[in-house]
């Protein structure tokens, strides 16, 4: 039996932009515990190169940012949510500046860059490493706050719900989470009156992904098992340009390289192919660019295509992309002189746990913010640099709702401790590794950028077989971080495939050869547990 219990007013699972924003907005009044799966800065936020979209340029308007977001989202966005987020952007930027984020300036005003899908320059950034600066500022503020307790190295297993009360109840309240301590291997229980899921996306279900290793869909899987609806999981965004290098995995070449004039070329003859696919050429939305690259790679049997910005001159390139330039030099590529080999890679999970404008899920006591959610902001394709923005706006919205409704949130009843009396230590770690690799490979091949019903059915068949195997394994052996992640990865893969089979059209990021046309009405895919 695990008898280690921790309680606080509010529990936040995840220490990226969404989780820390919620924590900082609640900590003046409440005791807040923030759990991280590894170190406090290892989530996706720190990896965000691009920046944060906000209407700040003279001549730019909220309506224009809303329109760009809706166009990218292919009609699937919730307009009221888009308005709320876009209109909340300038204030979110102002708060980050207060926290000390050193956004780039030019002649005393914020420097704005432009990215694909945006009709204006509206991306505030810190060189080409915005996420790192934002993560650092939020984390420093959280460390300095006496009411915030930061707890690293806790791998969440499952939400503690009414089913886990000492006196069983079917009420569906969420009272916290069971999490494995990486140091001790023991399972601990964290309880709170309100729990905020800020666990990020499910990118690691794919072989090639820009997501950090921890993005295994944990929050989505845990919320689903606890009884929350999940929506639009088929809308998986692939970044068109991830560095092709067999040694270095997941190095992203930011959207802004194309925004600032980079060209996509065929490696053998230097032919610029994007104008053949779209009038906007390299500035077309990501899904168009990713599909075009995928098309050329498959058509010609290539390993990669070239992204070339050398024609802008060495000074320009080094000034705009210092991080990328320096990193590529260590790999023997000088982007001021030569093209960069790139391939598409999974980049962002547009779907997730259904939330309302207050960040509330279907389960009482459970809120969610950021990439783990489907809030209605992104629709069928996320617009560049709207993702960090969503974290700030929804992290704050959830905090505000918890604060306002505090008296209606009951304190947690006694919850059963984690029972591991019937399990033994695993004898076959190789099973986990094998299954992990298998999932990521068939998801990439069958449920990738271009899909078909037959491919999706093949994936569904594999998932069913693996699920039986993993559930059996989970029932018999003591939980380890790898087993927890495998179980969640498989659950996320299942939700993606079920959602993709459900959508009988091609819209935004979901492109299937069997239904290439758009249906007249845009409808969210909603899975009910």
CATH class of the largest domain: Alpha Beta
Structural class: alpha/beta
* CATH architecture label of the largest domain: 3-Layer(bba) Sandwich
Roughly how much helix do the residues carry, as a percent range? 25-40%
Tally of contiguous helical segments: 14
What's the name of the CATH homologous superfamily of the largest domain? FAD/NAD(P)-binding domain
Mean pLDDT score, rounded?
A: 94
Strand content: 15-25%
Distance between the termini: 29 Å
Global outline: globular
Q: Count up the domains.
A: 3
Major beta sheet, strand line-up: 9-3-2-13-20
Topology:
Layout (H helix, E strand, L loop, with lengths): L3 E4 L2 E4 L3 H10 L5 E4 L16 E2 L8 H11 L6 H20 L6 E2 L2 E2 L1 E2 L9 E2 L5 H15 L3 E4 L2 E8 L12 E8 L5 E5 L2 E4 L20 H9 L3 E2 L4 E8 L12 H4 L3 E3 L8 H4 L8 H15 L4 E4 L5 H7 L1 H9 L9 E10 L2 E3 L11 E3 L4 E2 L12 H18 L24 H18 L6 H24 L4 H22 L23 E2 L2
Parallel strand pairs: 1-12, 2-3, 2-13, 3-9, 13-20, 19-21
Antiparallel strand pairs: 4-8, 5-6, 7-8, 10-11, 11-12, 14-19, 14-22, 15-18, 16-17, 17-18
Helix pairs in contact: 1-4, 1-11, 2-3, 3-11, 5-14, 12-13, 12-14, 13-14
